[in-house]
Amino acid sequence: MINKAVLILLLLLSGSALAEEKPPELWSWFKDLSKSKEACEIQSSYALQALGLENQVENEYGIYGNVKSNRVVVKCIEISANQSKLMVAVAGYNRDSVELVRNKIIDSIQ
């Protein structure tokens, strides 16, 4: 009888712990640049390396990786031959860290 009561209590506690789990913070930004898509991608890659990006993956959808405990994606979109749009998104569980990383990326790409 005690084992069943302990089991039920553990199930109830684990269910309430899962219900209280918060989703990660997601901070994003868009920025118009007076440079080509290729120049945007080169500068983005350099800026991310300077921030200590780990597990970097580059493909047609952008540059992905981790900065500390945050997941980062940077995408450059061609507007014209000399103009592009920079899109940045950072996700993580620490709001201040997510905001700081996002702002550092945005500030370092001109």
Structural account:
This protein is of the alpha+beta class and 110 residues long. It is elongated. A hairpin with a 2-residue loop joins β4 and β5 (83-92). The mean pLDDT is 86. It has helices at residues 2-19, 37-50, 95-108, and strands spanning 25-33, 54-59, 62-67, 70-80, 83-92. The protein has 3 helices and 5 strands. Helix content is 42%, strand content 38%. It has a 5-stranded antiparallel beta sheet.
How would the blueprint of this fold be written?
Elements: H1 2-19, E1 25-33, H2 37-50, E2 54-59, E3 62-67, E4 70-80, E5 83-92, H3 95-108
Antiparallel strand pairs: 1-5, 2-3, 3-4, 4-5
Distance between the termini: 67 Å
Main beta sheet, described?
Answer: 5 strands, antiparallel
In percent, how much strand structure appears in the residues?
Answer: 35-45%
Walk across the major sheet and give the strand order: 1-5-4-3-2
Structural class of the secondary structure composition? alpha+beta
**Low-confidence parts lasting 5 or more residues at pLDDT below 50?**
none
Count of helical regions: 3
Short description, anyone?
The chain has 110 residues and is α+β, with helices and mostly antiparallel strands. Helices cover 42% and strands 38% of the residues.
